[in-house]
Design goal:
With 122 residues, the protein is an alpha/beta fold. Helices cover 21% and strands 29% of the residues. The chain has 3 helices and 8 strands. Strands 5-4-8-6-7 form a 5-stranded mixed β-sheet, sandwiched between helices. It has a 3-stranded antiparallel β-sheet with strand order 1-2-3, covered by helices on one side. The longest helix is centred in the last third of the chain and has 13 residues. The radius of gyration is 14 Å and the shape is globular.
């Protein structure tokens, strides 16, 4: 029998998502968040796609992602090209989807130990 260390025990996972509410492990959030496997940052000033222009991408880039997921609420809405370009110029992939899909994708990528960060609008 082979034993391996469980590296997911200290990992943040999305446990539930409904419109207006997101549960990460045992904590509940009712505002936009940036989440990685180890950190959650609240973004109460970001509630619409138009608000993304005011977001400093260094808050996301500081988490050292290889891929950023953008969950845009109940339906997929693409952000302005200038927002996407900030990640492209840093060599980081950006995938845009509705928030439910972004939550599912985040959990799968974290389980694969990928360096993923999700910006989730609830």
């Amino acid at each position: 029998m082979r034993f391996t260390q469980d590296s997911t025990s200290a990992t943040l996972l999305i446990r539930a998502y409904t419109a207006g509410e997101l549960r990460v492990n045992e904590d509940t959030y009712r505002e936009t968040v940036i989440i990685s496997a180890t950190a959650v940052l609240r973004l109460p000033d970001i509630s619409t796609m138009g608000d993304l222009a005011s977001l400093d991408p260094s808050r996301i880039l500081a988490l050292d992602p290889e891929l950023v997921l953008l969950g845009t609420g109940p339906r997929q809405i693409f952000p302005a090209a200038s927002f996407r370009a900030q990640f492209l110029s840093a060599g980081i992939g950006l995938e845009v989807m509705d928030t439910a899909a972004a939550c599912r994708t985040f959990n799968v990528l974290v389980a694969e130990q990928r360096r993923v960060v999700a910006l989730l609008m609830v």
